[in-house]
Amino acid sequence: MKNKLLLALACLLLCACGNLKNQTSPNGKIELAYVGDKAQNHAFKVNYIGENGAIEALDIPVVGVLTSNEWGKNLTLEGVSKANYIKEEYTMLTGKRKACSNEANEYVYQFKDSLQKEIKLVFRLYNDGVAFRYEIPALEEALIKDELTTIRIPEGRKRWMQTYDQGYEGFYPESTTGKITTGRNRSQQWGNPALIQVADDVWTLISEAGIEKMHSASSWKNDKVVTDYKLFLDKNEKPVSGDWFSPWRVVMIGSLADVVESTLITDVSPASRVEDTSWIHPGSVSWIYWAYNHGSKDYQIVKKYIDMAVEMKLPYVLIDAEWDEMSNGGTIEDAINYAKECGVKPLIWYNSSTAWIKEWGAPGPHQRLNDPEKRDKEFAWLEEIGVVGVKIDFFAGDLQETMAYYIDLLECAAKHKLMVNFHGAAIPRGWQRTYPHMMTVEAVYGAEWYNNAPVLTPRAASHNATLPFTRNVIGPMDYTPCTFSDSQHPHITSNGHELALPVLFESALQHLADRPESYLSQPSVVQNFLSNLPTTWDDTKLVTGYPANHVVMARQSGDKWYVAGINGKDENNTINLDWSFLADGEYEVLIFKDGGSKEKPWTFEHIVSTPADLFNQIELLPRGGFVVELRINKIKN
């Protein structure tokens, strides 16, 4: 009997291991192959199955996780589970799409280490990519010491990657090498997300999701071998135990449209932990800082931005840093009361007091949110006086302690019905689903930098035409767009380019950064467009584009589509358009284009058309742009 049982177990193991190279996504386009030796060297390759056959989209030459109590050493592959089909429909309050589908085949690779402890590597194969994470059942208390995950990117392959910065405020330049030769960061460390062109129309975008309080966030280092990017965990100082799991390593795979339209980051993230979401209302915001760095200290300037919100029918005003020092006729309480009297909902700013602190000259208010009791008292006060959201700034990198602080802030904010905007912060990693009141995150080299240095002026157009393929794919991005006048440093992008940005850049709270007099001097059709522009979407489509060259995106809200495009080049750019995403029928169409001169900065056209009769080509000015608003009049049966 014993021999028969052992034989049966051996047969099961052989069956499990015999199918290692045949794991596929539900539609068969993503294929996972185990290419290790089952004993010491464990590696995987992910293929994309397209019209021209299989293309290697992802090479993972090393996997593994190590703990401080020596778990995870010398792994041996024991087997792999049969496919577990996952199908879940969920709804997002914010983001690129309301109705989302989490559909994947899940495979669990079961390892034993030298202590005979079980280590699992869970792969989910999606139709548009792959996600994987480590799981350790019944872990005895220990620190997560290291994760060995390595991704290989051959030299010569095009990539758009940001050298690591704890505020994720940098550019994504096109490169064909993993060597860092310029800039402040020479440590060969790279931030998420990373975009790689694998073949002519096969792309991968690498990031992560599913961060909990027990995790630090991660970046990538290729300081040993330039082609091999090893996952780098930021500081983990709190021991973990029990059934532990890592964050998900997420790789979107397919055409550029597949990548841009993907919801993998939220697919793998936990469902909403906020039961009542009726108080969460996305919208546009009147924002003071771009034009007046210290404007929130001045009650009269704050009133001017509240008045702008009234005039432009914006639901929100953000009162930024230093409101605790407000003078010139009023206090923060006076400003909040004035906003409420005007029918405008106030948001206010806080220093997280973890990175740039009072002793270093940072603006305040300080130290109001760090202690749990003080935080609860502060948020209760905000709820009482009618503040509906907070912007919290200057966070200390990707540390485990900082990740826990983010979640503590989100949990307390939900308790007091406060929407949240994180600035000077890490990239979004799926919290927009788990905590749907997290409306937006900076983590971008945005329009604020026109204040600080002349660097953005010549690079803005190409940078803006890269962000929809990189940073903004993974979650909301508070770029603070749409400026027609100049800040401390000028912008040379056109009016059409600027008007396109709040459509191109997804953010549930869209902070309009320009001066009141600049917006209110625009033609009424432009003002009306900004007044009525949604900040969340029923659907998103990439119409055409290539990083830094150009991008055209279409976003749907109700019976309207908004199509926006920008030129990332310093010369004219002719763009071909495909309107096939529109249902066949009749549309009322409003077209915003550049006029081409200071005397005539705009041209407008209002027509009724079918998709077949719309223009299929447009020539954009250097650093130019356009917007088309389409309302459905009649759909053809």
Explain what the structure shows.
- The protein is α+β, with helices and mostly antiparallel strands.
- Helix content is 18%, strand content 35%.
- Strands 6, 7, 8, 9, 10, 12, 13, 14, 15, 16, 17, 18, 19 and 20 form a 14-stranded antiparallel β-sheet that branches. A 7-stranded parallel β-sheet has the order 26-25-24-23-22-21-27.
- It is globular, with a radius of gyration of 25 Å.
Radius of gyration: 25 Å
Portion of residues in helices? 10-25%
Largest sheet, described in full?
14 strands, antiparallel
Assign the structural class, choosing from mainly alpha, mainly beta, alpha/beta, alpha+beta, or little secondary structure. alpha+beta
Note the overall shape. globular
| Strand content bin | 35-45%
For the termini, the CA-CA separation is 68 Å
What does this entry show, briefly?
This protein is α+β, with helices and mostly antiparallel strands and 637 residues long.
Features:
637 residues; alpha+beta; 14-stranded antiparallel beta sheet; 7-stranded parallel beta sheet; globular; disordered N terminus
Q: Could you give the topology of this structure?
A:
Layout: H1 2-18, E1 23-24, E2 30-34, E3 44-50, E4 53-60, E5 65-67, E6 76-80, E7 84-91, E8 99-112, E9 118-126, E10 129-142, E11 144-147, E12 150-152, E13 159-163, E14 174-175, E15 189-199, E16 202-209, E17 218-221, E18 228-233, E19 240-245, E20 248-254, H2 256-261, H3 264-267, E21 283-287, H4 299-311, E22 316-319, H5 332-341, E23 345-351, H6 372-385, E24 389-393, H7 400-415, E25 419-422, H8 431-434, E26 438-441, H9 456-464, H10 495-504, E27 509-512, H11 516-520, H12 524-532, E28 539-546, E29 550-557, E30 560-567, E31 573-576, E32 585-594, E33 602-609, E34 617-620, E35 625-635
Parallel strand pairs: 21-22, 21-27, 22-23, 23-24, 24-25, 25-26
Antiparallel strand pairs: 1-2, 2-3, 3-4, 5-11, 6-8, 7-8, 8-9, 9-10, 10-19, 10-20, 12-18, 13-14, 13-15, 15-16, 15-17, 16-20, 17-18, 28-29, 29-30, 30-35, 31-34, 32-33, 32-35
